[in-house]
Protein backbone atom coordinates (compact mmCIF):
# COMPACT_ATOMS: atom_id res chain seq x y z
CA UNK A 1 0.00 0.00 0.00
CA UNK A 2 1.33 3.45 -0.98
CA UNK A 3 0.36 6.62 0.88
CA UNK A 4 1.62 10.15 1.08
CA UNK A 5 5.02 10.73 -0.41
CA UNK A 6 4.98 7.48 -2.33
CA UNK A 7 6.53 5.45 0.53
CA UNK A 8 5.19 2.00 1.18
CA UNK A 9 3.13 1.80 4.41
CA UNK A 10 4.64 -1.29 5.99
CA UNK A 11 5.04 0.30 9.46
CA UNK A 12 1.95 0.10 11.73
CA UNK A 13 2.68 3.53 13.21
CA UNK A 14 2.87 5.06 9.76
CA UNK A 15 -0.44 3.48 8.80
CA UNK A 16 -2.06 4.76 11.98
CA UNK A 17 -0.75 8.28 11.42
CA UNK A 18 -2.09 8.26 7.88
CA UNK A 19 -5.45 7.13 9.28
CA UNK A 20 -5.42 10.00 11.80
CA UNK A 21 -4.71 12.46 9.01
CA UNK A 22 -7.73 11.23 7.06
CA UNK A 23 -10.01 11.35 10.11
CA UNK A 24 -8.74 14.83 10.96
CA UNK A 25 -9.63 16.12 7.48
CA UNK A 26 -13.12 14.72 7.97
CA UNK A 27 -13.28 16.49 11.35
CA UNK A 28 -12.14 19.79 9.81
CA UNK A 29 -14.79 19.59 7.12
CA UNK A 30 -17.47 18.61 9.63
CA UNK A 31 -16.56 21.42 12.01
CA UNK A 32 -16.59 24.08 9.32
CA UNK A 33 -19.91 22.79 7.97
CA UNK A 34 -21.49 22.62 11.43
CA UNK A 35 -20.31 26.11 12.40
CA UNK A 36 -21.67 27.58 9.18
CA UNK A 37 -25.02 25.77 9.48
CA UNK A 38 -25.61 26.66 13.13
CA UNK A 39 -24.56 30.31 12.74
CA UNK A 40 -26.04 31.24 9.38
CA UNK A 41 -28.99 28.82 9.00
CA UNK A 42 -30.17 28.21 12.56
CA UNK A 43 -29.47 31.76 13.63
CA UNK A 44 -27.39 30.84 16.70
CA UNK A 45 -24.82 33.58 17.19
CA UNK A 46 -21.38 31.96 17.52
CA UNK A 47 -17.97 33.52 18.19
CA UNK A 48 -16.64 32.72 14.73
CA UNK A 49 -13.06 33.91 15.19
CA UNK A 50 -12.27 31.63 18.17
CA UNK A 51 -14.16 28.71 16.60
CA UNK A 52 -12.27 28.94 13.33
CA UNK A 53 -8.95 28.68 15.20
CA UNK A 54 -9.47 24.98 15.98
CA UNK A 55 -10.08 23.69 12.41
CA UNK A 56 -7.28 25.91 11.14
CA UNK A 57 -4.97 24.41 13.75
CA UNK A 58 -6.03 20.86 12.78
CA UNK A 59 -5.47 21.64 9.10
CA UNK A 60 -2.03 23.01 9.95
CA UNK A 61 -1.20 19.82 11.86
CA UNK A 62 -2.19 17.74 8.83
CA UNK A 63 -0.11 19.87 6.47
CA UNK A 64 2.87 19.54 8.83
CA UNK A 65 2.36 15.77 8.98
CA UNK A 66 2.75 15.24 5.23
CA UNK A 67 6.50 16.11 5.18
CA UNK A 68 6.93 13.79 8.17
CA UNK A 69 5.29 10.95 6.22
CA UNK A 70 7.47 11.78 3.22
CA UNK A 71 10.73 11.57 5.16
CA UNK A 72 10.02 8.84 7.69
CA UNK A 73 9.45 5.17 7.03
CA UNK A 74 8.28 4.62 10.63
CA UNK A 75 6.18 6.67 13.04
CA UNK A 76 6.64 6.24 16.80
CA UNK A 77 3.89 5.75 19.35
CA UNK A 78 4.89 9.02 21.02
CA UNK A 79 4.31 10.96 17.78
CA UNK A 80 0.86 9.39 17.44
CA UNK A 81 0.10 10.29 21.06
CA UNK A 82 1.07 13.94 20.57
CA UNK A 83 -1.13 14.14 17.46
CA UNK A 84 -4.13 12.76 19.35
CA UNK A 85 -3.54 15.10 22.31
CA UNK A 86 -3.74 17.97 19.83
CA UNK A 87 -7.12 16.65 18.67
CA UNK A 88 -8.35 16.55 22.28
CA UNK A 89 -7.19 20.12 22.85
CA UNK A 90 -8.92 21.34 19.68
CA UNK A 91 -12.23 19.76 20.70
CA UNK A 92 -11.98 21.23 24.21
CA UNK A 93 -11.31 24.67 22.73
CA UNK A 94 -14.42 24.54 20.57
CA UNK A 95 -16.63 23.23 23.35
CA UNK A 96 -15.48 26.06 25.62
CA UNK A 97 -16.87 28.65 23.19
CA UNK A 98 -20.08 26.73 22.44
CA UNK A 99 -21.68 26.05 25.82
CA UNK A 100 -19.27 23.56 27.43
CA UNK A 101 -20.92 20.37 28.68
CA UNK A 102 -24.29 21.73 27.59
CA UNK A 103 -23.14 21.15 24.02
CA UNK A 104 -24.21 17.63 22.89
CA UNK A 105 -21.00 17.32 20.87
CA UNK A 106 -19.08 16.83 24.13
CA UNK A 107 -19.68 13.12 23.49
CA UNK A 108 -16.99 13.32 20.79
CA UNK A 109 -14.41 12.89 23.56
CA UNK A 110 -15.57 9.27 23.75
CA UNK A 111 -14.66 8.82 20.06
CA UNK A 112 -11.16 10.10 20.75
CA UNK A 113 -10.78 7.70 23.68
CA UNK A 114 -11.87 4.76 21.49
CA UNK A 115 -9.50 5.84 18.70
CA UNK A 116 -6.62 6.06 21.16
CA UNK A 117 -7.39 2.61 22.55
CA UNK A 118 -7.25 1.16 19.04
CA UNK A 119 -4.20 2.95 17.69
CA UNK A 120 -1.93 3.56 20.68
CA UNK A 121 -0.02 1.45 23.16
CA UNK A 122 -1.79 0.82 26.50
CA UNK A 123 0.10 3.50 28.43
CA UNK A 124 -0.59 6.11 25.76
CA UNK A 125 -4.25 5.07 25.60
CA UNK A 126 -4.65 5.82 29.30
CA UNK A 127 -2.95 9.16 28.67
CA UNK A 128 -5.69 10.01 26.15
CA UNK A 129 -8.31 8.95 28.72
CA UNK A 130 -6.74 11.27 31.27
CA UNK A 131 -6.46 14.14 28.79
CA UNK A 132 -10.11 13.74 27.72
CA UNK A 133 -11.27 13.65 31.35
CA UNK A 134 -9.23 16.74 32.19
CA UNK A 135 -10.65 18.49 29.11
CA UNK A 136 -14.21 17.68 30.27
CA UNK A 137 -13.52 19.25 33.65
CA UNK A 138 -11.92 22.28 31.96
CA UNK A 139 -14.84 23.00 29.63
CA UNK A 140 -17.23 22.75 32.58
CA UNK A 141 -15.51 25.76 34.14
CA UNK A 142 -16.94 29.10 32.94
CA UNK A 143 -17.88 28.10 29.37
CA UNK A 144 -19.13 30.70 26.91
CA UNK A 145 -22.92 30.19 26.77
CA UNK A 146 -24.66 29.85 23.45
CA UNK A 147 -26.55 32.94 22.24
CA UNK A 148 -29.78 31.28 21.15
CA UNK A 149 -32.26 32.99 18.80
CA UNK A 150 -35.08 34.87 20.48
CA UNK A 151 -37.72 32.61 18.96
CA UNK A 152 -36.42 29.46 20.64
CA UNK A 153 -38.71 28.56 23.54
CA UNK A 154 -37.43 25.02 24.24
CA UNK A 155 -33.62 24.76 24.25
CA UNK A 156 -33.91 21.06 25.14
CA UNK A 157 -35.23 20.30 21.65
CA UNK A 158 -32.10 21.85 20.19
CA UNK A 159 -30.03 19.67 22.53
CA UNK A 160 -31.86 16.55 21.34
CA UNK A 161 -31.34 17.49 17.69
CA UNK A 162 -27.64 18.04 18.35
CA UNK A 163 -27.45 14.70 20.17
CA UNK A 164 -28.92 12.90 17.17
CA UNK A 165 -26.42 14.57 14.84
CA UNK A 166 -23.57 13.74 17.22
CA UNK A 167 -24.66 10.09 17.41
CA UNK A 168 -24.79 9.79 13.61
CA UNK A 169 -21.37 11.43 13.32
CA UNK A 170 -19.79 9.12 15.92
CA UNK A 171 -21.37 6.05 14.29
CA UNK A 172 -20.05 6.96 10.83
CA UNK A 173 -16.55 7.76 12.10
CA UNK A 174 -16.40 4.55 14.16
CA UNK A 175 -17.38 2.47 11.13
CA UNK A 176 -14.72 4.18 9.03
CA UNK A 177 -12.14 3.78 11.79
CA UNK A 178 -12.79 0.13 12.55
CA UNK A 179 -13.06 -0.80 8.87
CA UNK A 180 -9.73 0.82 8.11
CA UNK A 181 -8.04 -0.74 11.15
CA UNK A 182 -9.39 -4.16 10.18
CA UNK A 183 -8.01 -3.69 6.67
CA UNK A 184 -4.62 -2.68 8.07
CA UNK A 185 -4.61 -5.80 10.25
CA UNK A 186 -5.41 -8.00 7.27
CA UNK A 187 -2.66 -6.37 5.22
CA UNK A 188 -0.23 -6.79 8.11
CA UNK A 189 -1.13 -10.48 8.41
CA UNK A 190 -0.64 -10.95 4.67
CA UNK A 191 2.75 -9.23 4.82
CA UNK A 192 3.87 -11.38 7.74
CA UNK A 193 2.69 -14.50 5.92
CA UNK A 194 4.66 -13.45 2.84
CA UNK A 195 7.75 -12.84 4.98
CA UNK A 196 7.41 -16.26 6.60
CA UNK A 197 6.97 -17.85 3.17
CA UNK A 198 10.02 -16.07 1.85
CA UNK A 199 12.06 -17.11 4.89
CA UNK A 200 11.00 -20.73 4.37
CA UNK A 201 11.96 -20.54 0.70
CA UNK A 202 15.32 -19.00 1.50
CA UNK A 203 15.96 -21.69 4.11
CA UNK A 204 15.08 -24.28 1.48
CA UNK A 205 17.52 -22.63 -0.91
CA UNK A 206 20.26 -22.81 1.71
CA UNK A 207 19.64 -26.51 2.28
CA UNK A 208 19.53 -27.14 -1.46
CA UNK A 209 22.76 -25.20 -1.87
CA UNK A 210 24.50 -27.26 0.78
CA UNK A 211 23.30 -30.47 -0.86
CA UNK A 212 24.29 -29.30 -4.34
CA UNK A 213 27.70 -28.12 -3.14
CA UNK A 214 28.39 -31.45 -1.47
CA UNK A 215 27.31 -33.34 -4.58
CA UNK A 216 29.42 -31.07 -6.78
CA UNK A 217 32.52 -31.69 -4.68
CA UNK A 218 31.91 -35.44 -4.78
CA UNK A 219 31.37 -35.41 -8.55
CA UNK A 220 34.47 -33.34 -9.26
CA UNK A 221 36.96 -36.19 -8.75
CA UNK A 222 35.23 -38.88 -10.87
CA UNK A 223 34.60 -36.37 -13.67
CA UNK A 224 38.28 -35.46 -13.71
CA UNK A 225 39.17 -39.14 -13.80
CA UNK A 226 36.79 -39.72 -16.69
CA UNK A 227 38.29 -36.78 -18.56
CA UNK A 228 41.80 -38.23 -18.17
CA UNK A 229 40.67 -41.72 -19.22
CA UNK A 230 38.89 -40.39 -22.29
CA UNK A 231 41.96 -38.41 -23.22
CA UNK A 232 44.06 -41.57 -23.02
CA UNK A 233 41.52 -43.46 -25.10
CA UNK A 234 41.52 -40.78 -27.74
CA UNK A 235 45.27 -41.21 -28.21
CA UNK A 236 45.09 -44.99 -28.52
CA UNK A 237 45.86 -46.10 -32.10
CA UNK A 238 42.97 -48.56 -32.15
CA UNK A 239 40.44 -45.85 -31.32
CA UNK A 240 42.14 -43.13 -33.34
CA UNK A 241 42.01 -45.36 -36.40
CA UNK A 242 38.30 -46.01 -36.03
CA UNK A 243 36.34 -42.94 -37.08
CA UNK A 244 33.13 -43.96 -35.28
CA UNK A 245 34.88 -44.79 -32.02
CA UNK A 246 36.93 -41.60 -32.20
CA UNK A 247 33.72 -39.58 -32.68
CA UNK A 248 32.05 -41.36 -29.75
CA UNK A 249 35.02 -40.62 -27.52
CA UNK A 250 34.96 -36.97 -28.62
CA UNK A 251 31.24 -36.75 -27.84
CA UNK A 252 31.86 -38.30 -24.43
CA UNK A 253 34.63 -35.76 -23.75
CA UNK A 254 32.26 -32.92 -24.67
CA UNK A 255 29.59 -34.24 -22.31
CA UNK A 256 32.10 -34.69 -19.49
CA UNK A 257 33.30 -31.12 -20.08
CA UNK A 258 29.70 -29.95 -19.91
CA UNK A 259 29.21 -31.79 -16.61
CA UNK A 260 32.36 -30.21 -15.22
CA UNK A 261 31.05 -26.79 -16.28
CA UNK A 262 27.77 -27.46 -14.50
CA UNK A 263 29.59 -28.60 -11.37
CA UNK A 264 31.75 -25.47 -11.45
CA UNK A 265 28.63 -23.33 -11.84
CA UNK A 266 27.03 -24.98 -8.83
CA UNK A 267 30.12 -24.33 -6.75
CA UNK A 268 30.21 -20.71 -7.89
CA UNK A 269 26.53 -20.14 -7.19
CA UNK A 270 26.88 -21.65 -3.73
CA UNK A 271 28.84 -18.55 -2.72
CA UNK A 272 27.71 -14.94 -2.93
CA UNK A 273 25.91 -14.53 -6.23
CA UNK A 274 27.77 -11.38 -7.15
CA UNK A 275 31.51 -11.02 -6.87
CA UNK A 276 32.56 -14.64 -7.49
CA UNK A 277 33.84 -15.32 -10.99
CA UNK A 278 31.73 -12.47 -12.33
CA UNK A 279 32.59 -11.29 -15.82
CA UNK A 280 32.76 -7.72 -17.11
CA UNK A 281 30.89 -7.75 -20.40
CA UNK A 282 27.87 -6.15 -22.07
CA UNK A 283 24.23 -7.13 -22.30
CA UNK A 284 24.54 -8.10 -25.96
CA UNK A 285 27.77 -10.10 -25.55
CA UNK A 286 26.35 -11.91 -22.52
CA UNK A 287 23.17 -12.96 -24.30
CA UNK A 288 25.05 -13.81 -27.52
CA UNK A 289 27.37 -16.08 -25.52
CA UNK A 290 24.46 -17.94 -23.92
CA UNK A 291 22.74 -18.41 -27.27
CA UNK A 292 25.97 -19.47 -29.02
CA UNK A 293 26.69 -22.06 -26.32
CA UNK A 294 23.30 -23.62 -26.82
CA UNK A 295 23.51 -23.60 -30.58
CA UNK A 296 26.94 -25.19 -30.49
CA UNK A 297 26.57 -27.98 -27.98
CA UNK A 298 23.17 -28.43 -26.43
CA UNK A 299 20.36 -27.91 -28.89
CA UNK A 300 19.50 -30.25 -31.70
CA UNK A 301 16.64 -28.18 -33.11
CA UNK A 302 16.26 -24.56 -34.12
CA UNK A 303 16.82 -21.62 -31.80
CA UNK A 304 15.40 -18.26 -32.90
CA UNK A 305 17.06 -15.33 -31.18
CA UNK A 306 15.63 -11.83 -31.56
CA UNK A 307 17.81 -9.04 -30.22
CA UNK A 308 15.67 -5.96 -29.60
CA UNK A 309 17.61 -4.55 -26.66
CA UNK A 310 18.78 -1.42 -28.42
CA UNK A 311 22.02 0.39 -27.52
CA UNK A 312 24.37 -1.94 -25.71
CA UNK A 313 25.55 -1.24 -22.14
CA UNK A 314 28.29 -2.69 -19.91
CA UNK A 315 27.23 -5.11 -17.16
CA UNK A 316 28.65 -7.58 -14.66
CA UNK A 317 27.63 -11.05 -15.87
CA UNK A 318 26.63 -13.04 -12.84
CA UNK A 319 27.33 -16.81 -12.92
CA UNK A 320 24.07 -17.43 -11.08
CA UNK A 321 22.13 -15.50 -13.74
CA UNK A 322 23.79 -17.46 -16.52
CA UNK A 323 22.93 -20.70 -14.73
CA UNK A 324 19.24 -19.93 -14.23
CA UNK A 325 18.91 -18.78 -17.86
CA UNK A 326 20.41 -22.08 -18.93
CA UNK A 327 17.93 -23.90 -16.69
CA UNK A 328 14.98 -22.18 -18.34
CA UNK A 329 16.29 -22.91 -21.85
CA UNK A 330 17.00 -26.49 -20.78
CA UNK A 331 13.40 -26.87 -19.61
CA UNK A 332 12.14 -25.47 -22.91
CA UNK A 333 14.41 -27.83 -24.88
CA UNK A 334 13.06 -30.86 -23.02
CA UNK A 335 9.45 -30.18 -24.04
CA UNK A 336 10.19 -28.54 -27.39
CA UNK A 337 13.38 -30.03 -28.92
CA UNK A 338 12.60 -28.74 -32.42
CA UNK A 339 12.20 -25.05 -31.70
CA UNK A 340 12.95 -22.48 -28.97
CA UNK A 341 12.47 -18.74 -29.23
CA UNK A 342 14.50 -16.21 -27.24
CA UNK A 343 13.72 -12.49 -27.41
CA UNK A 344 15.62 -9.74 -25.60
CA UNK A 345 14.27 -6.22 -25.23
CA UNK A 346 14.53 -3.16 -23.04
CA UNK A 347 11.57 -1.73 -21.15
CA UNK A 348 12.71 1.59 -19.67
CA UNK A 349 15.31 0.56 -17.07
CA UNK A 350 14.63 -3.18 -17.25
CA UNK A 351 16.13 -5.98 -19.31
CA UNK A 352 13.33 -8.25 -20.51
CA UNK A 353 14.09 -11.77 -21.77
CA UNK A 354 11.31 -13.96 -23.16
CA UNK A 355 11.89 -17.69 -23.71
CA UNK A 356 9.21 -19.48 -25.75
CA UNK A 357 8.64 -23.06 -26.79
CA UNK A 358 6.13 -25.19 -28.73
CA UNK A 359 5.56 -27.75 -26.01
CA UNK A 360 2.33 -28.63 -24.19
CA UNK A 361 2.44 -25.45 -22.09
CA UNK A 362 1.99 -25.04 -18.36
CA UNK A 363 -0.78 -26.76 -16.45
CA UNK A 364 -3.14 -24.41 -14.56
CA UNK A 365 -1.79 -25.52 -11.17
CA UNK A 366 1.75 -24.89 -12.43
CA UNK A 367 0.86 -21.32 -13.39
CA UNK A 368 -0.91 -20.78 -10.08
CA UNK A 369 2.17 -21.89 -8.13
CA UNK A 370 4.82 -20.55 -10.49
CA UNK A 371 8.22 -20.39 -8.85
CA UNK A 372 7.30 -22.68 -5.98
CA UNK A 373 9.45 -25.79 -5.48
CA UNK A 374 8.35 -29.25 -6.50
CA UNK A 375 5.75 -28.03 -8.96
CA UNK A 376 6.43 -29.48 -12.37
CA UNK A 377 4.50 -30.80 -15.31
CA UNK A 378 7.25 -33.33 -16.05
CA UNK A 379 6.34 -35.65 -13.19
CA UNK A 380 9.90 -36.02 -11.96
CA UNK A 381 10.98 -36.05 -8.33
CA UNK A 382 12.30 -32.63 -7.46
CA UNK A 383 10.71 -31.15 -10.58
CA UNK A 384 10.17 -27.44 -10.77
CA UNK A 385 13.37 -26.56 -8.90
CA UNK A 386 14.80 -24.79 -11.97
CA UNK A 387 11.95 -22.27 -12.02
CA UNK A 388 12.12 -22.02 -8.23
CA UNK A 389 15.81 -21.10 -8.41
CA UNK A 390 15.07 -18.68 -11.26
CA UNK A 391 12.48 -16.78 -9.23
CA UNK A 392 14.68 -16.57 -6.14
CA UNK A 393 17.86 -15.54 -7.97
CA UNK A 394 15.91 -12.79 -9.74
CA UNK A 395 14.33 -11.72 -6.47
CA UNK A 396 17.80 -11.30 -4.97
CA UNK A 397 18.75 -9.07 -7.90
CA UNK A 398 15.51 -7.07 -7.68
CA UNK A 399 13.93 -8.72 -10.72
CA UNK A 400 10.95 -10.98 -11.32
CA UNK A 401 9.79 -13.83 -13.55
CA UNK A 402 6.38 -14.76 -14.88
CA UNK A 403 4.96 -17.54 -17.04
CA UNK A 404 2.04 -17.90 -19.39
CA UNK A 405 0.75 -20.14 -22.14
CA UNK A 406 1.07 -18.86 -25.70
CA UNK A 407 -2.17 -18.47 -27.68
CA UNK A 408 -0.80 -20.64 -30.49
CA UNK A 409 0.41 -23.36 -28.13
CA UNK A 410 3.49 -23.74 -26.00
CA UNK A 411 4.77 -21.77 -23.03
CA UNK A 412 6.47 -18.44 -22.46
CA UNK A 413 8.68 -17.48 -19.51
CA UNK A 414 9.30 -13.75 -19.12
CA UNK A 415 12.34 -12.57 -17.14
CA UNK A 416 12.49 -8.95 -16.02
CA UNK A 417 15.72 -7.67 -14.47
CA UNK A 418 16.59 -4.10 -13.44
CA UNK A 419 19.61 -2.95 -15.38
CA UNK A 420 21.06 -1.13 -12.39
CA UNK A 421 21.28 -4.50 -10.57
CA UNK A 422 23.76 -5.84 -13.13
CA UNK A 423 25.28 -2.58 -14.40
CA UNK A 424 29.03 -2.21 -14.19
CA UNK A 425 29.90 0.06 -11.23
CA UNK A 426 30.45 3.65 -12.30
CA UNK A 427 28.61 3.25 -15.60
CA UNK A 428 25.56 5.33 -16.50
CA UNK A 429 22.60 3.77 -18.24
CA UNK A 430 22.02 4.77 -21.81
From TrEMBL:
Catalytic activity: ATP + protein L-histidine = ADP + protein N-phospho-L-histidine
EC numbers, comma separated: 2.7.13.3
Transmembrane segments: 23-42, 48-69, 127-146, 158-178
InterPro entries: 2C_sensor_his_kinase, HATPase_C_sf, HATPase_dom, His_kinase_dom, HisK_dim/P_dom, HisK_dim/P_sf, Sig_transdc_His_kin-like_C
Alphabetical list of Pfam families matching this protein: HATPase_c
Record's keyword annotation contains Cytoplasm: no
Gene Ontology cellular-component annotations: plasma membrane
Major localization class: membrane
Coiled-coil intervals, chain numbering: none
Domain of life per record: Bacteria
CDD domains: HisKA
UniProt subcellular location: Cell membrane
Record-annotated Histidine kinase domain positions: 214-421
Topology term for the membrane: Multi-pass membrane protein
Keyword field: ATP-binding, Cell membrane, Kinase, Membrane, Nucleotide-binding, Phosphoprotein, Transferase, Transmembrane, Transmembrane helix
Keyword Transferase (UniProt): yes
UniProt-recorded Gene Ontology molecular function terms: ATP binding; phosphorelay sensor kinase activity
PANTHER family given in the database record: SENSOR PROTEIN CREC, SENSOR PROTEIN RSTB
Protein name according to UniProt: histidine kinase
Organism: Sphingomonas leidyi
